[in-house]
From TrEMBL:
GO terms for molecular function: ATP binding; CDP-diacylglycerol-glycerol-3-phosphate 3-phosphatidyltransferase activity. The gene is Pgs1. This is CDP-diacylglycerol--glycerol-3-phosphate 3-phosphatidyltransferase. Its main location: mitochondrion. It comes from Eudromia elegans (Elegant crested-tinamou). Residues 182-208 form the PLD phosphodiesterase domain. The keyword Protein transport does not apply.
Length: 527
């Protein structure tokens, strides 16, 4: 169709074959059954994603959706760190320096101490990946919070600080602290304890433990998924600066330096390491799928009536599938972007997509797809008062106004195309809170429950697509109880919102100064 052709021209270039990925599996049937009747065809229409990334089949009983920062914090502290026996892997933008963050570090220390006491030599390994620029900000920072752990447990603890290869040379010398973070960051948020994995958009900072609303999903007893994210964090850690006991940093021996070495060589090595993790996991899962399929088919023509009855009684263990989606444009990895664009493109008339972001600054490709396709959209974004930059000092204090301007421009385009019924904006507002949730929920036509959600670090903006290291997962499920959990999560977030209309932008707190309007188009690719 003309829409697909335009989309191919706009976005995919040499990767346009990805739009044909859904054709590699059986065509998805038209959903004509009663609401929520999605299984198995509804969920299985997304199996094309496994042509790009590993597919992890799990039981929905292993998935738990968390709802509050306090629940997230307590899970990090009590349920996970204190019970970890083999590994703790944490990837975040930064670790804060307050009392709550210190308690978290104390829990890590306690877990390491316990591990030593049990056997005399610890089996527990702790690997922490943070961003170099954000983690080095100020005199007291993420590095100073973690050096005592390195000093006490040098054999068990690794702290890696990713430094974007795009911040180098004269630019690195001239651009001041804080502003240097606009060039590119390690933005992945994964918290992993033995075989339990938490995917979130939340950082390790007191606001994210108290009154900064985000999203959080716990995948319990999922060793293959835990192995994948351990290997991913290790791969990024290998191309990152290593924190030393004296708070200095150095690269691993033989590794190209991110800002002193050859940029192309560094990015090529990083690409090979990360794609190696993705491809090896994908191969492992394909072999596992083939073996499972072979075992299930073995002797099928000779089934007795009793075997047949037992087969009918036996419920499939896997009713939920996890697909890790990685976006690292500096390394030439654009999987998350490709999958997200394909999902937006393929959403049919009658489908509903609830999309949320704490920073509404969609890429042009995403905006064009939302405005040019047929699904209904409910887009949840932060009102100025719950924007993380609200009340900030200096230039940063104008950022909420810049987001208001971007939002107004998009809303005007929606109105110009007479799409107000199909594309609705809603603003999150909650006194005393800020808003940082991101992701989407996909409801197929004729269904009141979502069968797919994206959850992780990307904000759907220019930074997420082009500058930062990002990871999220697509969770596809045919289990009604899990679909209900995801639906309740979505409803709970949207309950704290109001629908945007033209009168919204007439309110005094939506006034945008002329200089902000002039500057926003020039700097919108940096925030």
């Amino acid at each position: 169709s003309g829409r697909i052709t335009a989309f191919l021209d706009l976005s995919f270039h040499s990767s346009s074959w990805l739009l044909l990925a859904p054709l590699l599996t059986s065509p998805a049937p038209v959903i004509t059954a009663s609401p929520c009747s999605l299984c198995p065809e509804g969920a299985h229409r997304f199996q094309w994603i496994r042509n790009l990334v590993p597919e992890f089949g799990i039981s929905s009983s292993h998935v738990k959706v968390l709802s509050s920062p306090a629940e997230f914090y307590e899970l990090l502290k009590a349920s996970c760190i204190k019970t970890a026996k083999q590994r703790v892997v944490m990837a975040s933008l930064y670790l804060g320096t307050g009392i709550l963050e210190q308690e978290l570090v104390d829990c890590l220390e306690e877990a390491l101490e316990k591990s030593l006491q049990v056997k005399g030599s610890s089996d527990l390994r702790v690997s922490i990946l943070l961003d170099f620029t954000r983690g080095s900000r100020g005199m007291r920072n993420s590095r100073t919070m973690l050096t005592p752990l390195l000093q006490r447990f040098p054999q068990q603890v690794r702290v890696s600080l990713f430094h974007t290869p795009n911040l180098r040379g004269l630019l690195r010398l001239l651009i001041p602290e804080r502003f240097n973070e606009t060039i590119g960051l390690q933005h992945i948020k994964v918290y992993l304890f033995d075989d339990n994995v938490i995917l979130s958009g939340a950082n390790l900072s007191d606001l994210y433990f108290t009154n900064r609303q985000d999203r959080y999903v716990l995948l319990q007893d999922s060793p293959e998924i835990a192995d994948f994210f351990t290997e991913l964090v290790d791969a990024i850690g290998d191309v990152s600066l290593q924190l030393q006991q004296d708070d200095t940093v150095q690269m691993m021996e033989g590794m190209v330096h991110p800002y002193q070495g050859d940029k192309m060589a560094y990015c090529e090595i990083a690409n090979q390491k990360v794609m190696g993790v993705i491809n090896s996991a994908r191969t492992r899962q394909e072999i596992l799928h083939a073996k499972t399929f072979h075992d299930s088919q073995e002797g099928s023509p000779l089934f007795s009536q009793q075997d047949s009855q037992a087969s009918e009684d036996r419920k499939p263990e896997h009713d939920t599938w996890i697909y890790p989606l990685i976006q690292m444009k500096p390394f030439g990895i654009q999987i998350d972007e490709m999958v997200t664009e394909t999902l937006l493109t393929e959403a049919e008339r009658g489908a509903r997509i609830c999309l949320t972001t704490g920073y509404f600054n969609l890429t042009q490709a995403y905006m064009d797809l939302i405005l040019g396709t047929r699904a209904e959209y409910r887009i949840l974004l932060a009102s100025p008062e719950v924007n993380g930059f609200f009340g900030a000092k200096g230039v940063a204090g104008a950022i909420p106004a810049a987001y208001v301007y971007i939002e107004h421009q998009f809303y005007s385009e929606v109105c110009c195309l007479h799409q107000q019924e199909r594309v609705q904006l809603q603003e999150y507002s909650r006194p005393g809170w800020t808003f940082h949730a991101k992701g989407l929920w996909l409801y197929l036509a004729g269904s009141n429950l979502p069968c797919l959600t994206l959850i992780g670090s990307p904000n759907f903006g220019y930074r997420s697509v082009h500058r930062d290291l990002e990871a999220q997962v697509a969770i596809v499920t045919e289990n009604k109880a899990l679909q209900q959990q995801l639906h309740q999560e979505q409803e709970q977030l949207y309950l704290c919102s109001g629908v945007v209309s033209s009168s919204t932008f007439e309110q005094p707190n939506r006034y945008v100064k002329l200089w902000v309007k002039l500057v926003t188009p020039l700097i919108k690719n940096f925030f």
